[in-house]
Request: fold
Amino acid sequence: MASRQIDIDQRIWQVVMLIPPGKVSTYGDVARMAGLPGAARRVGRALRGLPGDTLIPWHRVVNAQGRIVVPGGDDARSEQRARLEGEGIHFGRGPALSLRKYRWRPG
Reply:
């Protein structure tokens, strides 16, 4: 069973690695692209398990409203926002970014 979980994590991480700088994807989008439709929460669990020094761009995954929803409190949310802004993503007056503008649509 642990091997199956690792395989699922690997599929999720591979999809996240494809998200280009300056673009984001939702947890649900990543789940669908990894062959796991309806498993957005499973994507969150796979990303939570990443080591702190990972090269996987976890910060490019947001919720379906374009909001940052990472565990770890304000520091984690601030880090994700700073990484996204560093890639040229702008947030509006509220806490959400424009999915219409920044959502990655693989062609």
Q: What stands out?
A: The first helix runs from residue 2 to 18. The chain has one domain: 2-102. Strands lie at 25-26, 61-62. The mean pLDDT is 92.
